[in-house]
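Aim 2, interim progress. The first record below pairs a target sequence with its C-alpha cells.
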Amino acid sequence: MPIAGWSLNACVLATLMFIFAVLPPAKAGLPPVWSDADIGGPADAGSASDTNGAWIVSGGGADIWGTADQFNFASQSFNCDGAIVALVTSVQNTDPGTGWSKAGVMFRNDTTGGAMNAYMTATAGQGVSFQVRTTTGAASSSTTISGVNPPVWVQLVRASDQYGGYYSYDGINWIQVGSTTTIEMNGSVLAGLAVTAHNNAALNTSAFTNVSLTSPTFGIYRELWTNLNSSVGNNLAALTNTTDNPNWPTNPAASYTHIFTTFETEINVSMNYFGQRLRTFVVPPASGYYAFWIASDDTSQLYLSTN
C-alpha cells in the first residue's frame, strides 16, 4: 500500500544491463560515477585508481583533523541511508615520527576543507579511528583503538543523521569504535575513500580492496522545500499551494532528497520555513488491522492509497 505524508517546520531507481562479450584487459581508472579530488589544497597532488577491485589512492596533506582537512578523496554522490565498506590492505607511513598517516572510508557534506564529515580510518601506526566533524568549520573529535594494523576492514554506517564507525578482521564480525554520532549533513553527501599523508611534503599511497557502497532495497523517499512563505503561517498551504510555493511539487531542494530506512527524518535542524514530503510503499507481513499515525512540528497530514 502506498503511504505518504508531508510536514512543515529514493533509492534512485536503477536499470541494470548485463552484457557478455570479449573485453580487453582491465585498465586502471575510476568506476562510473566516481570522481577524485584533492581537498583543502595539499602541496602534492593526489590520485586514485581502481583495477578489477584493487584500489590505489595517493593523498598528501597535513591531516584530516582539526577545523580543516587536507587529503585526497575518491568519492561518489550518495543520497541514501546505507554503508560504505573497504578492506584497507596497506597504509604508507609518510609521517614515521607519529604513525598518523591515514586511509579509510568517509561520508562528507561537500568538498570544502572544513566540511562536516564522518571518517573511519586505519593508520600507519596508531590503530583505527572513528572521527567526526559535526559542524562546518568546527574542530574534529575522535575515538581511537590502538594495536589494530592493516590489513583491516573499515565501515561507516549512515541512518538519517546518525553515523557510526566499525572495524573488522574478517569483514563479517564488526566492532564499533566510539558511539553513533549525530551529524546534520545534507540528504545527498559524498561517500568514498579518503587518504592523507599527515605530512604536507609527502604522498601517502595506500591500497584498498572489497570497496562497496550499499543502500536499502526499499526505503522512505524524502523531498524537501526550503524558503517557504512565512506570511502564510504554519499550514500546509505554505508547502502545497503553488501560488505560495512555486517550486511545488516538482522542484524540491535537491541536496535534501534522501532515502530513509525508517519513517523518521532528522530532528532539531537549524532551519526555518521548510516543508517536506515522504513517500513509501508498505507491504504488510500479514493480513490484519494496522494503525498508521504521524507526528510533526508544526503541521502534517497522512495519506493512504491503494493505487
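The second target in this work package is listed in the same format:
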Amino acid sequence: MTFVTDPDCGLEKHTPASSLYGGVRFRKRGRNKAKWGSAIAPRTRVKFLEYQAHAVFRKYGIPVPSGALAAKPEDLVNPPLPCAVKAQVLIGGRGKAGGIKFAKTATEARAAANAILGMRIGPYTVKQVYAQEKLDIAREFYLSITFDRSARAPVLMASTSGGVDIESVPHASIVRLHVPPLVGLQPYLLRNLARRLKLSKKLAAQVSDIAIKAYALFRQEDAELVEINPLAVLKNGRVVAGDAKLVIDDNAEHRHPEYANLPQDRTPLEEEAHDKGITFIQLDGDIGVIANGAGLTMATLDVLNLKGGKGGAFLDLAGTDNPETVKQAFEILLKAKPSVIFLNVFGGITKADTVATGVEQALLAHGKKVRVVARIKGVNEDRAKEILSDAGVHSVETIEAGAEMAVKLRRAR
C-alpha cells in the first residue's frame, strides 16, 4: 500500500498493487561502535587530500616528493624549489581548472599560492595549497591497488601510460593482477608485473618494493584504493610516487580513530547525518526520498526520473527498528527543504509500523508543513496504515503511483 499526505488538499488515489524492491543490507558504521541494524548505514569512503595521502605513504616507506603545506601565501617561507604549487581539494581536474602552477623561486611560489587560494574548483573553495618538489621525470607509469568485487579479491593494476586518467588508457594496455587475499602479494606476481611492464632489473626491484609497501598500506589501513599516478622514474634512476590518491572505507573508522576527523566532501547536512550514523546524500533535485536498502533506494530514484521528477536529498533507512531513528532521519531530510518527500519502504527488518510511527512523530512535531507520499509494504503494514491514517495520511497503492503523485505535488507548488 502507498500513502499520500498533503496538508493542503488531502489527495487520495488508488491503483492496482505492485511492488519494486531490491535491498542490500549494510552494517552500521560511523564514529561510534559498529553494530547491525540500529541506524542507517551503507558503505561510504574516507578520502584524503594529496598531502595527507603523502603522509600515509611516508609511514609505509613509499618514496614521495618533499613538500610544504600552506593556508596563506606567506606560509611558504622555504618551499622546495623548483616546485609545483597544487590546490588541495577532493576532486580531480585541478590542472585544467588552474589549480596547479609551477614556481622557480619562493616569490613565485607565494604568487602562485595567492592565485590558487580561494579559487573554486568544482564545488570546492581552495583553502590550502601544497608546494611539492618538482620532479625531473624520465618515464611515467601508473600503479594502483583496489578491489575487483566480481573476483572477490584485490587487484594490482599498472600501466606504462602514467600521468593521465586511467579511464582514458586502452583496456589492453592495463596490467591487472589479482592478489590472493589469503596469501597476499607474492613474488611470482611481482615478476609477472615486471615482465609485462618490460622493466629493467633495477627498475623492477624498485617498483616491486613500492608495490609491496602499497599492498601493506592497502591491507592495514582498510583502503579501497591506493593509487600512484604517476609512478615516476627520475632521470637519476630513482622511482618515486609522483602523486598519491588514498580512499579508505569508513566502515573501518573504529579501527582508525586518527582518520575520524578528516575533512570530507560532504555537505553540512551530510556531515550531520554521518555523525548520527545516518546515510544521507544530497542530489540536485528537490524531491526528497526515504527508502530502506540500497536497491530500493536506487529504484525509487529511477522511477521518479521516469515519471518526470528528480530526486534530491535521499535517506537509506537500512535495517533500523527504532522510531526515533526514523524521526531523526526525517528531520534531517526536512532541513534540505524538499518540495515533496517520497517515502518508499519494504517492511522486513525495518518494520512498517516502526517507520509509520517515526513519520507520524516528525509530522506532528513540524506541523505537517511538508507534502509526503508514502508507500509502505511488509511486516505490520496494517498497523502502519492505521498510524498514518491517524496522522491524516491517505493511501494509494504502487511505487509508480507514488512517484507520479510526488511529481504532481511538486508541480502544484
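The radius of gyration is 25 Å. This observation will shape the mutagenesis plan for the next reporting period.
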